[in-house]
Amino acid sequence: QCPGIEPLCLDLADWDATEAAVGAAGPFELLVNNAAVAVLQPFLEVTRAALQRSLDVNLQAVLHVSQIVARQMIAQGVPGAIVNVSSQASQRALRDHAVYCSTKSALDMLSKVMAMELGPHKIRVNTVNPTVVMTDMGRINWSDPQKSAAMISRIPLGKFAEVDDVVNSILFLLSDKSAMTTGSSLMVDGGFLVS
C-alpha cells in the first residue's frame, strides 16, 4: 500500500546493529515504535531472561531508535512526530503480566519525558494504549476462551481491538490533525480502564 516504505529487518535488542541500520536510513519525519514482546509469567516465577528480553525490546529499543531518529529530525530542522505503542496494561495490573505491565508503564513515562525534551524541536511524542489486539501475539496470549471471556467482560464495548483500530489512532497522532497533542496517551481500550 505504501511503495515508499522500506522495511529494515533486525533485532532491536542488538544496540549496535540497530545503530548501524537505523542510522543509515532516513531522513525521517515520522516514527512508530511498535515492536514488543510479552513473556507472561507469574510474579514469583519471573526469570531474569524474560525480564531482560522484555526490557531490551519494550523499553531500550524504543529509547534507542527514538534517539537515532530524533537526532536526524533535529539535524534536518524539520518538525516530526513519534508514536510509541504502549498498552492498557501500563495502567492496570494484570495477572502474570508483572514484566509486561512494568515495561509498558516505563514506556508511558519515557514518552512523556521525550515529549517534554523534544517539544522545543517541534517533535511531538505520544502513545497509543490499546487493549488486547487481535495480532498473532494477541491470539497466542488470549486464545484460552475462559481467559479471554474474563477480559472481554471488563471491556464496555464487549470486544478486543482489531489492528485497524490501533492503526487509525496512530495515523491521527502522526498527522497534523493532532498538531497540539504531545505527551498524551490515547486509550484504544474499548473502555477497559473506566470499568
From TrEMBL:
Signal peptide: none annotated. PROSITE patterns: ADH_SHORT. It holds the Pfam family adh_short_C2. Keywords: NADP, Oxidoreductase. One of its GO terms (biological process) is xylulose metabolic process. It comes from the Eukaryota. GO terms for molecular function: carbonyl reductase (NADPH) activity; L-xylulose reductase (NADPH) activity. Belongs to the short-chain dehydrogenases/reductases (SDR) family. Homotetramer. This is DER reductase. It comes from Lophotis ruficrista. The lineage of its organism: Eukaryota, Metazoa, Chordata, Craniata, Vertebrata.
